[in-house]
Amino acid sequence: MSISLQTCPCQMNPSSDDISAPLLYQDCCQPYHDSLLSEETDKADGIKTETAERLMRTRYSAFVLVKPNYIVKTTLPAQQNLLDIQAIESWAKETNWAGLEIVAHTPKLGKRHAQVEFKAYFNVSDNENDGLQAHHELSAFVKVTDKTNNNAQWYFLDPTVEMTITQKQPCICGSGEKFKRCCGMYI
Ligand SMILES: [Zn+2]
Ligand SMILES: [Zn+2]
Fold it and tell me: Which pLDDT tens digit goes with each residue over 72-109?
């Protein structure tokens, strides 16, 4: 069966049975993936994730479906060339993904940030710690407004990327505020 017609990876939640009508990939994360990964720039400007939670879901699905370019392109632009796309790809492939649970979504935090607490489940099959496990994380996101056309877009703030920035420098998100008063509060 075509991947488009299968349940979207982000709709699987092993800790709950009560998703009554899980969305198909084509009705959930696929339009976002296709739009951002399209070679045609007019298409790439198309659909944007409306909320941090939506972005989080599409990123989880991109890990499951091994679309490392989507992971890179949805990370804050100032961090993108510091990411190891090969490592992202191997990690995505090697992980036996088992579902996503959104624990909490704080859609508005200050002027331009949001947080999503989630559990990304995966199966481990080695002798010592067999079974279902979860990455339980609180991720921060920032909404960046393009000053030339006023388009706003959510990005993931990667806390693992080593940035050479001082607290008093202008923020990496381009907001014009000091780093410590902006994204520095969340990463
Ligand atoms: Zn989805
Ligand atoms: Zn910032």
Answer: 999 999 999 999 999 999 999 999 999 999 999 999 99
Q: How many helices (H) and strands (E) does the chain have?
A: 6, 4
The ligand that comes nearest to the alpha carbon of residue 61 is: 1
Name, in order, each residue with C-beta under 8 angstroms of 91's C-beta and a sequence gap of 6 or more.
63
Taking only Cα atoms into account, the Rg of the chain, rounded to an integer number of angstroms, comes to: 17
Say how many Å lie between the CA of residue 120 and the centre of ligand 2: 26
Residue 19: both structure tokens together? 């998703």
Residue 152: which CATH number? 3.10.450.50
Residues spanned by the domain of 59: 3-156
* CA–centroid distance, residue 115 to ligand 1 (Å): 18
Count of structural domains within the chain: 1
Expressed in angstroms and rounded, the spacing between residue 181 Cα and the centre of ligand 1 is 33
Residue 172 lies in a domain: no
Q: Give residue 41's pLDDT.
A: 58
Q: 87 CA distance to ligand 2 centroid (A)? A: 26
Domain contains 174: no
